[in-house]
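Title: Prediction job returns without error message
Component: structure pipeline
Severity: low
Priority: P3
Assignee: unassigned

Description:
Job completed but the reporter wants confirmation the result is attached to the right record. Sequence as submitted:
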Amino acid sequence: MKKKAQVMMYGLMLGLAIIILTLALAPALRETTTATMNQTVGDTLGLDCSNSSISDFDKATCIATDVSMFYFIAGLLLVGGAVVFAKIIFG
């Protein structure tokens, strides 16, 4: 094989590996986020986001924690997609 074809295949494999690992880590990340937002139970510390009498600072932390999972997963998917797209288009 020519070097350019080998580099292209490597780039495609790298991009697909990033996408697959992101999708594999999503359930574990969701579980961690859910545990963080729930009440403190035993050794697991939580923010108690369902409580309406928490401070505004804690409410903002709950919102940031909830949104951060989406941004992390979307960011990794975009990176993987960009690697695949760049190797297909610019070969």
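Comment from assignee: result matches the submitted record. Helices lie at 3-37, 56-90.
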